Amino acid sequence: MEKAYDLVIRGGSVVDGTGGAPFEADVAVKDGAIAAVGRIAGLGAEEIDARGQVVTPGFVDIHTHYDGQATWDQRMQPSSWHGVTTVVMGNCGVGFAPCKPDDHDRLVRLMEGVEDIPFPVLTEGLPWNWESYPDYLDSLSKRRFDVDIGSQLPHAALRVFVMGQRGVDREPAMEADIQAMAAIAKRAMEAGAIGFGTSRTLNHRSSDGSPIATLTAGEDELTGIAMGMAAAGRGVLQVVSDFNDPAEEFAMLRRIVEASGRPLSFSLLQSPRDPEQWRFMLEQMSEAKAAGLQIRAQVATRPVGVLFGLELTVNPFSSHPSYREIKALPLAERVAALRDPGFRARLLAEDAENAKAPGLSPARAWDRIYPMGQDNPDYEPTPDHSIAAIAAERGLDPYAAALDQMLDGGEGNGRGMLYLPLLNYAQNTLAPAYQMLQHDCVVPGLSDGGAHVGMICDGSFPTTNLIHWTRDRTRGPKLLLQTMVKAQCRDTAETVGLFDRGLVQPGYRADLNVIDYPNLKLKAPSVAYDLPTGGRRLIQRAEGYTATIVAGQVTYRDGEPTDALPGRLLRGAQAAPAAMAAE
User: Residue 134: which residues within 8 A CB-CB, separation 6 or more?
Assistant: First the structure.
């Protein structure tokens, strides 16, 4: 019998991305698009039995850093393990194009410092078969992926390309510099950039410690670039800022949007420095929306935290003299030394050599550091589960309790991890994140997939969004499943101009997930050595994704990749299907 469709998903509970209640239906796919939703008589060349499971649009993650990985890898893991079918990179102003040959190392050092991707990994992995930004897109367009990829023009690369050392030294841009950057931005948008990303935070530094080149870029420079985008008639703006003067900083961003007409999104987190500032930012966005301006915030849906471990970039003993003696040894030999009673006693008796070194803040924060559990890690923990509480219960020094966790926790054999929430957790609760997520100008974001490979593992945000916020949360109200699906499908897609996806409706792109929702489980972070040169990275997997589908092809079955690589480079904004656009 002739098959009417390429794929039919039968009998699932469809959460269609509109925010409406789930409904039971079949979903038929033909030629990479959704052909029909309802009771479907026609057969598919492939059929998936989704009874008892949830069918959603593919997730759209608009804040990733796969700029390097996309040049050497076909699978954008960890994101694609978590139902993500579209990623956007080039965030926070860091990336690799445009770039003159003499500046290769300069941009690599910046990415190494800002996003914790080792220099040897990048120098080995990057092919550097481009100089201009359109050349970079052309290079990516020849590759095949397990997700669609959108790229943004990174401000740091652009500034260095135009200004050279003056840009690195954060000198003010002259009018000729601004005109040159605007012209490149215009060409980048015309070539297919999704937008432009910049950073205004001191947290972003090159591996030599120098602040990112864009930190103090003037309003005239940012406006000039935005006007270049406006001349192209396309592209979104992405900003991360310290918001040291929130009123003035937001007013500047608003003026840029008013002048250029380009939509803008910025990172919004609860900061321990000013735990209530987020409320002001929500108010400002509401006022901007009332004035007809498109300004949204990307919000992290769990604490942004650092992981400590013996295999990771830092641990609480990183600056202790005795640990430095064994730091370069293979893990098994370090574990053996740390289990030796004499060495352990000497280590625990020492003070750190540098009280400000990375990893030393735990000495003052044991009540905010937690053991990282094995399955379904708790990302809204309470102080009674902290290392301080464990140490008190066992009659140990907190350093000793932390060492035991790293030696014996997790998979054991020195692979245990500690978790220090830094942002979005100033009051030991995700209540502020819940309130932010209620705002109509907020979308979930900031997963940083592809970055922070030795310290942070947040590419799993989309799975946390389902498990924690719609099913398992106990420390406050939950969100409806359909609300979160809309947020991380349709809303994120629209934020970056991708109007052809994010809904389970006829005509839309057939990016879909079939999810065993009751049994969806997040695994603990672990370490893999699969980057170029055998480089290390943190990964985190999930169980419960029965199928992930990109452009009508199944890319993952039960969490394992298939041979299908239908993902492509996205060339700019994507229009809604013609039938939908006419409505």
Answer: 187, 188, 191, 192
